[in-house]
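Table S7 (text form). Paired inputs.
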Amino acid sequence: MTRAWRKGTAWVLLAMLCGCGEKPASQPERRRVSVQTVQASEFAPRVEVTGDVQARVQTQLSFRVGGKIIQRMVDVGDRVSPRQVLARLDPKDLQTNVDSAVAAAAAEQARVSQASAAFDRQAKLLPKGYTSRSEYDSAQAALRSSQSALAAARAQLANAREQLGYTDLVAEAAGVITARQAEVGQVVQATQPMFSLARDGERDAVFNVYEALFVQPAGDAPITVRLLEDPSVTVQGKVREVTPTVSAQTGTLQVKVALAALPPRMHLGSVVSGSLTAPSKPAVELPWSALTKDMHDPAVWLLKDDKVSLHKVTVGRYLTAKVVITDGLASGDRVVIAGGQLLHPDMQVEVAEEAGQ
């Protein structure tokens, strides 16, 4: 065996040993995910809202004449009775008007007396031919004119006395003062609000509900209204009124619930809560882990033919452990609910667990 032959044999053995150490190329490992096959169902959430108890009829009380406030007899929270005086204006100016009207009426009365005497004389002289018909007619016209002026003066006097009576602001009905808009010494104009009066009688629970969350109970379904500080205190009610427009200041709709007789611990101004039910509509409930984001919009990963794709959705409600998808999914769609953190479009995955909704 020659040296060259031995050297060639060594190279062949070395090549064989190197070949035995090589491993075949392995396939890339697929990411394992959990999948849920969704089924749309009717979703009718209940919205808990808070509000307060208000009077069915609330009146803004104001003076019918202008002037300076010299006295205020009530404050916020005071209970008032019908015809009770709440505040008083300085009557000096209006009393002067009454005095002037009295003087004007007296002057017109004197003119009537004078015109009446002149007419009586003309009436006696005319049959005897001691006066003309034209003078008689003139006396008669002067009497009628003075009588009309007297009637106008008396009307002015009555109006002045009535205006003087308006210096007292009185309650139109029994109730509770809920607001005060003026103070003693302030000069107010006629019809400027002075007090807000919550009249005794029927009570409403008033809730301000955002339009996006607004739900209207079906028909006359009763609503249970609870005292916020003690939920065991309840009263039944029905929706009486819903404002047709959204408030520009708060962006909410106002819902008024007519209440039955209030329990002892629930009174005017009490903070209450109530539940309103939304009209049902098709929706899909998914766990929070299924939700991701496509740029700035919510999205989920859909699985089809072992490949995932990002799909935008509309979230209707965020619940404690779930989200309610109102648009973007259909029954039968397979959604990745776990393991979607590092996915990318068209990525092949392996289903580790699959569940129906």
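Next pair, protein 2 of 2.
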Amino acid sequence: MFNNILVPSDGSSLSQRAVKEAIALAKVTSAKLTALHVYPKFSGSPYGTFGPAEDVLEEAHDRQARESSDKLFESIKKQADAAGVSFASVLVESNDVWKQIIAVAKKRKCDLICMASHGRRGVSGVLLGSETHKVLTHSDIPVLVLR
């Protein structure tokens, strides 16, 4: 049924529920699981620092993002290994999360995107413009949304 399932995760409890469901689905369908974490680009110092200090802050930002994503991927890998599911991880730096989700799914030849949604409706849903909604709107790849 599925060969490669992409599961984006930000480490939140909601996205961790999506990870568990994606692993269960991957196990049943003998699919590979590809975990994705997108972290924001460094937007500069809030203090207006320039030059070498700015470089140090950017390096610290990247290091912290990589360390936290390593922990996130380690946790997902343990769960996948316990279920006997093949696992790969992708880390991307971008401010366009939904675009990266679709791009990575295409590049890695994923045939399903499994992700969480807060399920906001009405004005708050429109104003917040969830990443899940944007993926649903723009993806040619099937998307399984979990709440």
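The radius of gyration is 16 Å.
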